[in-house]
Amino acid sequence: MNKIFITILILIIVVLGSYFLLKTKVEAPTTEAPITSDKSTTPDKPITVDQNAVIIYSDTGYSTATLNVKVGDTVTWKNNSSSNMWTASGMHPSHVVYSSTALTAHCPDVLGTAFDACKGIAPGDSWSFVFNKVGGWGYHNHLKASHFGKVIVE
Ligand SMILES: [Cu+2]
Predict the structure, then answer these.
(1) Ligand 1 center–CA 85 separation, angstroms
(2) Beta-carbon count within 10 A of 141 CB
(3) TM spans, by residue (predicted)?
(4) Residues 15-36: pLDDT tens digits?
(5) Residue 123: what pLDDT?
(6) At residue 18, what are phi and psi to the nearest 5 degrees?
(7) CA–centroid distance, residue 110 to ligand 1 (Å)
(8) What's the predicted TM-score (pTM) here?
(9) 53 C-alpha to ligand 1 centroid (Å)
């Protein structure tokens, strides 16, 4: 009788202990860390938004159909899907609308001015862009153009 009670007590302590250990592990490092390409992060780790906007990309598309931001704001696209995400300005396939240049001319976008990731961003990674032009900017996943959204810059 006493043995069973002690076994159950130990089990409860172990379960509670590992719960709190895991909980602290997941929550601790998220404060000010940028959500760029840290492959060691857990996929369901909460994202710290600050004043920058984060759009989640999943297997069903972009989480925010239309996002309003101010000139100079950074928008981050986080790839939570199972395939690569190539976020780029309309129109597919040339991506001319934001930068007035086609992707054959502006990729790789070393200055970060073309609103074009210029490559597939792997699942778990993210891509950011600073909007310096006022307007309504449609975008899509170049690798799956039926997934699209819009950023309105004021
Ligand atoms: Cu495209």
Answers:
(1) 11
(2) 26
(3) 6-22
(4) 545 555 555 444 444 444 444 4
(5) 98
(6) -70, -30
(7) 18
(8) 0.67
(9) 22
